Amino acid sequence: MNGHTLHSIGELARRTGTTVKTVRFYSDCGLVPPTHRSPAGYRLYDDGAVARMELVRTLRDLGLDLAAIRQVVDRERGLAEVAAAQAQALDVQIRVLRLRRAVLTAVARRGADPEETNLMHRLAKLSEAERQRLVGEFLDSAFGGAGADPVFAGIRCSMTPHLPDDPDAEQVHAWVELAEDPEFRAHVRQLAEDLAAGHLPDAPPRPRDDLAAIVRGLVAPAVAAGIDPASPRADPIVADLTARAAHLLGRGDPTASRRRLLARLERVNDPRRERYFSLLAVINDWPRPESLQPVLDWSIRALRARIHAGTLLRTIRS
To answer: Each residue of 20-52: pLDDT tens digit?
Structure first.
């Protein structure tokens, strides 16, 4: 036997941590053929067969199929090339498993019925192009024909959700909630119309055109300081707020301007708006937005108090 050590099928199984049945299977399919036969016809394997069997077992444990393993052990393809292909296939499987886990976790948390579960699964499985088409339809219906305006281009971009390929349960939950809310489209359209009404024709978009940003900048210090919105200390803040928002409200007497500003703030203070941006942050993995409700509530109370006082004063005078 040329001085080489030969091993029986049982010894090969022991040396490689497998079973005789497994060795026989790989031997029969040609992956680990016997090196010799004993006079009685029993299979015998040399040390090269031991190494080959260990490689086959390792590759099988890593999930490679028999065809790929045969190409490796027969040197038809490099191990690195096959490993890279297998890793890519595993990435796909991992994304699918993560998606399934996310959907199942969201179903368990929501107590979803079969119809909602089906919707959740279908939405989560959409391709990137399909998701963006769905989002585009939502934004088109919300913004109407104003989407070409540079003001709305930035707003649309900042309001576009991007569900990842392997969303977690919270993102799936948020995606479904967002996709299921057709009433929000009317609210977004109203916000868009408010912006369009306040934007001057042919004027470049200004960051301070955002009423929510104006209110946050002016009113947050008053809220933090505990200033009563109905007190005289709030008068200069309300006056500054009205003046800063004048370009959004059009011309008119101070009372009319305050009424228009109040109506705008009440629409901005719609809880669906805050919920939308909260869901958007979850889906896009952005930092959670700071709640505007405290500054909006303060501003609304302050405006109502002064509108009421003005109405009362005119009634007394009349």
So the answer is: 999 999 999 889 999 999 988 999 999 989 999
Q: Which two tokens stand for residue 140?
A: 């088109």
Q: Which residues contact 237 (CB under 8 A, 6 or more apart)?
A: 218, 219, 222, 227, 302
Cα Dmax for the chain: 126
Torsion over CA: 127, 87, 73, 60 (sign): negative
CA 220, CA 226: separation in Å to the nearest integer?
10
Q: Residue 168's closest CA among 285, 30, 268?
A: 285
Q: How far apart, in Å, are the Cα atoms of 269 and each of 12, 239, 241, 264, 272?
A: 75, 20, 16, 9, 8
Beta-bridged to residue 43, according to DSSP, are 37
Residue 70 CA to residue 54 CA, distance in Å, equals 13
pLDDT tens digits, one per residue of 184-219? 667 666 666 665 555 444 444 444 457 888 999 999
- Residues 6+ away with beta carbon under 8 Å from 109: 169, 173
Alpha-carbon distance 102 to 45, whole Å? 49
Q: Are the C-beta atoms of residues 278 and 289 closer than 8 Å to each other? A: yes
Q: For residue range 168-185, what is the model confidence (pLDDT) as tens digits?
A: 778 877 877 776 666 666
End-to-end CA distance of the chain: 124
Separation CA 127–CA 302 (nearest Å): 48
The secondary structure element, H or E, covering residue 43 is strand 43-45
Give bridge partners of residue 45 from the DSSP assignment. Answer: 7
295 pLDDT more than 80: yes
pLDDT of residue 44: 93
pTM exceeds 0.90 for this model: no
What is the predicted pLDDT for the residue at 76?
86
CB contact at 8 A, 34 and 27: yes
Report the alpha-carbon distance of residue 234 to residue 223 in Å, rounded: 10
